[in-house]
Amino acid sequence: MIEQKIVDQLIQALGKEKVITAAEDLLVLGYDSTPGLHATPDLVAYPTDSEQVQTIVQIARDHKIPFTPRGSGTGLSGGSIPINGGIVICLTKMNKILEIDEENLTATCQAGVVTLDLFDAVAAKGLFYPPDPGSQKISTLAGNVMEDAGGLRGLKYGVTRDYVMALKCVLPDGTLLSTGGKSVKDVAGYAFKDLLVGSEGTLAIITEITVKLIPPPQDKRTFLAYFDKIRTAGEAVSKIIAAKIIPSTMEIMDKATINCVEDYVKIGLPREMAALLLIEVDGHPAMVSEEAAKVEKILHEVGAAEVKVAKDAEEAAELAAARRTALSALARVSPTTLLEDATVPRSMLAETFDLIEKLAEKYQLNVGTFGHAGDGNLHPTVLCDERDADEMKRAHAFYDELYDQVLAWGGTVSGEHGIGIAKKDYLAKQIGPGGVAVMRRIKHAFDPDGLLNPGKIFTDDQV
Ligand SMILES: Cc1cc2nc3c(=O)[nH]c(=O)nc-3n(C[C@H](O)[C@H](O)[C@H](O)COP(=O)(O)OP(=O)(O)OC[C@H]3O[C@@H](n4cnc5c(N)ncnc54)[C@H](O)[C@@H]3O)c2cc1C
After folding, report:
1. Can you give the pLDDT at residue 462?
2. How far is the CA of 165 from the centre of ligand 1 (A)?
3. Does the beta carbon of 453 lie inside 6 Å of ligand 1?
């Protein structure tokens, strides 16, 4: 509970409409998109510029109130949930694209710009911002930067980190820091920008972001390949990469996901198939033709049951849109959707599919798997009911065993969703007590009082 005099101070600084204290609004803003996690903030503030963020941080510091930055709340590891209550600083009203610099090929945005709005604005000027998380219609750019979000084009074009050139942020002591710039080379001092990307809102509050833009590909070809066995789909991915072809997109859906997506979007996906791959090659037209022919040949060689080429850009966009609905489509069929983010070296994909199938059977769970197969990044999703204690126990045992093997194969517990609250134990397994201790020292250097987004990534007992 925040004292009324502090609420008044915030209202005076920001204006009444930017300070939320009504219980029903606070309740909603205590969730992100991670099932089973919730904590109600005491107050939510909506700043509209960096100075207002500074003011909120200063007031929170003066009264030792924890504060947690939030974008659109599409996070899948609980990063924006205020587990100790306090103030949530929601950046969604800072949604202006400040500049598109066509000479330097950069765009500078306020933190709360929606990812797809940036894509559309630069596309209108003949430019391309590739990172495209499935949540791009809602997620904010700062949320993407803080989680280092990937997307359907990550295989060829990389993830958010690869496009961040500069950040403006408010540090936990209330000072402003600018790091990076429009120069394509910059090795002056420690690489703070790179440390901040993927820091899950635990080191600073981002207020402005400058990203790199590139020219769009001139041509592209989109395939849908269906498989009788999911293992064969995994083999196809490994063989395409081994043939030195890097498609822009190589996404997978298993049978359960195909069926849920088909129920949702009704575009005629074959319900009987064990898996499908959505593959896109893009670039110069001559290269696209050559690579498309090679991809088609490999798909037939590994034994794809059917290979379809999208007839035009509209059909290609429809297929990508269907893939983007995978999580929402799965989430419709059970009260609880537990989604994980297991990522393996691509050569281990077929084994990972086998393992998921084996563990789903062992623990008697309904599992749908989809993900960025080309990145080795899978989202095995347990469709369950959190009111069923035994089923939840089996679901957690499923993930524990899966992650033990993923780590043994040299994989990671998170390819793109971050650690947040949900995966602290798994992170400790991956990087060990030494790794956690170094991270805690970095956190302490930025935030000695531990007021910024406390309780995320690692806990005190993991020191
Ligand atoms: C349907 C669906 C599909 C998805 N698909 C993908 C996908 O393909 N790839 C992928 O990587 N992720 C995906 N996600 C996860 C999620 O969308 C991303 O992690 C996204 O980057 C979160 O953005 P957000 O604005 O919602 O951030 P939030 O969820 O609000 O916050 C995420 C983290 O960033 C911090 N944060 C937010 N704003 C700031 C700021 N201004 N300064 C400092 N810290 C801040 C928060 O404290 C929190 O730790 C998906 C989620 C959903 C629901």
Report:
1. 46
2. 19
3. yes
